[in-house]
Design brief:
The protein is 39% helix and 17% strand. With 321 residues, the chain is of the alpha+beta class. Strand 3 and strand 4 form a beta hairpin. The chain is globular and about 55 Å long. GO terms for molecular function: oxidoreductase activity. Residues 208-218 have a biased composition (Basic and acidic residues). InterPro entries: Nitroreductase-like, Nitroreductase/BluB. It comes from Catenuloplanes atrovinosus.
């Protein structure tokens, strides 16, 4: 990160916004826009990047924006600033970050921002070795700190998830509008080097992109992976945003522990399968996202970084120019 000597607050905020561009988002749509002010950073949802067929309610869009929000806070910590976050109901303005007084840059803050830059979505099979229970418990605790929950599926619940994911894939395969939308964003933001070169053997079906890529994979299966559902007590945008913050925090912590995270949004995108997933949760709450947690393939190089929009398309600095 850049040295803070003689820097303006606005320049620090602009750098944090640029770093937040590494955040994960639904189908890599990056549906956010930052507005840099002299003493604050505003975060907006961008309706033009909402997936109208896949995500009509904007649930996954808002989760994505929440991930960017947390990424910016992580970046500020590595730039030597605490951050106060004010959240709004939208529909477009979702959060404002006000930097606090300068603070010590800790090794932990630097590790988190490094994980932020190197994090990848890895669709390959996981190793035939389970994630350590202590790591799973730590990830649950981190999610809880953000006001939502991570339920780890056990026993038959995994097969219920598999059935729901399979049905969601069938429903979306029959919808030409969904297929057109997915094809558009795949061509725009998902290089062939990020897609496995052969079909992935898995208990819970991964998304079928209609073609194979160029990412080498081993002979593994996801039988040792764990599956979790990020959920909350209501189905409101404010909680979706917090779910995105929780996803980001848990993903960075998982990366530091050598655990791979694969978001599975298909079952959330179809109303009937999302309802089925809620029943799997015994109606404890509303599911926002499914994640696979596993140990990555260590015999093959991981996927490359996916393309990111230029900072000028994501950050408005007109108020400080």
């Amino acid at each position: 990160m850049t040295s803070q000597t003689n820097r303006t607050v606005a320049s620090v905020l602009a750098e944090a916004a640029a770093t937040a561009g590494f955040a994960p988002s639904v189908h890599n749509t990056q549906p956010w826009r930052w507005r840099v002010l002299p003493d604050a950073l505003e975060l907006y949802a961008v309706p033009e990047r909402k997936l109208l067929s896949v995500d009509p309610a904007g649930r996954l869009l808002t989760v994505s924006v929440g991930a960017a929000l947390h990424h910016a806070v992580v970046a500020l910590a590595a730039l030597g600033h605490t951050a106060e976050v004010t959240r709004f109901d939208g529909p477009e303005l979702l959060a404002r970050i006000t930097p606090g007084a300068p603070c010590e840059v800790t090794p932990a803050a630097m590790r988190r921002v490094q994980q932020l830059r190197t994090r990848r979505t890895d669709r390959r099979p996981t190793r035939d070795e389970p994630v350590h229970p202590d790591d799973l418990t730590a990830l649950q605790r981190i999610v809880e700190e953000h006001g939502v929950h991570l339920h780890l599926l056990v026993g038959d619940q995994v097969y219920e998830l598999a059935a729901a994911a399979g049905r969601a894939a069938e429903v979306e395969a029959r919808d030409p509008f969904v297929q057109h939308e997915l094809e558009f964003w795949k061509a725009k933001t998902l290089p062939a080097e990020s897609l496995p070169e052969t079909p992935v053997r898995s208990t819970v079906p991964n998304r079928d992109f209609g073609e194979h890529g160029r990412l080498p994979i081993g002979e593994g299966h996801d039988g040792s992976a764990s599956y979790g559902v990020i959920f909350g007590r209501d189905d409101e945008p404010a909680t979706w945003l917090r779910a995105g913050e929780a996803l980001s925090a848990a993903w960075l912590a998982a990366a530091e522990r050598g655990v791979g995270v694969l978001p599975l949004s298909g079952v959330i995108e179809v109303d009937v399968t999302r309802t089925a997933l809620r029943m799997t949760l015994s109606e404890l709450g509303y599911p926002y996202l499914v994640v696979r947690l596993g140990l990555p393939d260590s015999d093959h190089a991981g996927p490359p970084a996916t393309p990111r929009m230029p900072a000028a398309q994501l950050i408005d600095t007109s108020a400080v120019s």
